[in-house]
Amino acid sequence: MIIAVDGPTASGKGTIAKALAAHFGLPHLDTGLLYRAVGRQVALNGGNPDNPVDALAACGFADDLLADEILRSEAVGGFASRVSVHPAVRRALFDRQRAFALQPGGAVLDGRDIGTVIAPEAQVKLFVTASVAERARRRWLEMTGRGIAADLAAIERDIALRDERDMNRADAPLMAAPGALVLDTTTLGRDAAVAAAIAAVAVHRS
Ligand code: C5P
User: Fold this and answer.
1) Topology of the domain comprising 2-205
2) Ligand 1 centroid, distance to 24 Cα (angstroms)
3) Which residue's CA is the nearest one to ligand 1's atom 20?
4) pLDDT in tens, 31-60
5) Which of 57, 115, 181, 196 is deepest in the core (most CB within 10 A)?
6) Which is higher by pLDDT, 126 or 169?
């Protein structure tokens, strides 16, 4: 069974994808991490994330980079969003994601285009979303919880900008796949959101 979990940043899709993978005993791939690694590698190369040649050159990042905590930073997230608009970057990362989705027994992948491009045949497609204000609040809590100084208004602006870029790019824009179940987590706590997702997958399986 392939489970596709798409949605904007800080919607809860990563938490939900991880919980689904654990519950159904499936391997999980956070595809945003691949774009973050490309964004980080561009910076390490001294390149420009808006330049498609620099961005493509960064797709050859070493796998060790995927474990680097710095990939979780807001700055790298912004770079990831910028490199992800280039079709050549999306093509370069396609095979790896596709192979993960097609492994025997199935998989859970979370990202922006899993249900639309990477695995349109997924048996279950979830589109996890929440209001910009709530997503900014979560990101702020997460950052201040880790001892990082954060400005709520700046985070909200950044999230809105990232949404805008992800939804309006020509190649594989962020959108709910046809037939996807939309799960709005704005007013749901973590456990309620996970329970709703597990219930949705269980219905599709039966
Ligand atoms: O999900 P995460 O915030 O880690 O993703 C970082 C960026 O990578 C997103 O803003 C998006 O632009 C890009 N991305 C993408 N397609 C995916 C996953 C992430 O374009 N499947």
Assistant:
1) Rossmann fold (3.40.50)
2) 24
3) 84
4) 999 999 999 999 999 999 999 999 999 999
5) 115
6) 126
Place of tokens 């790896």: 96
- Please give the average per-residue pLDDT across 61-90, as a whole number: 95
Residue 158 Cβ < 6 Å to ligand 1: no
> Taking 90 as the threshold, does the pLDDT of residue 206 lie above it?
no
Contact by Cβ (8 Å): 17, 109:
yes
Ligand 1 touching residue 6 (CB < 6 A): no
- Two structure tokens written together for 140: 């702020």
Instruction: Note the residue count of the chain.
Output: 206
Q: Is the dihedral of CA 10, 147, 31, 168 positive or negative?
A: positive
Phi, psi of 177 (to 5 degrees): -65, 150
pLDDT above 80 for 204: no
Which atom of ligand 1 sits closest to the CA of residue 82? 12
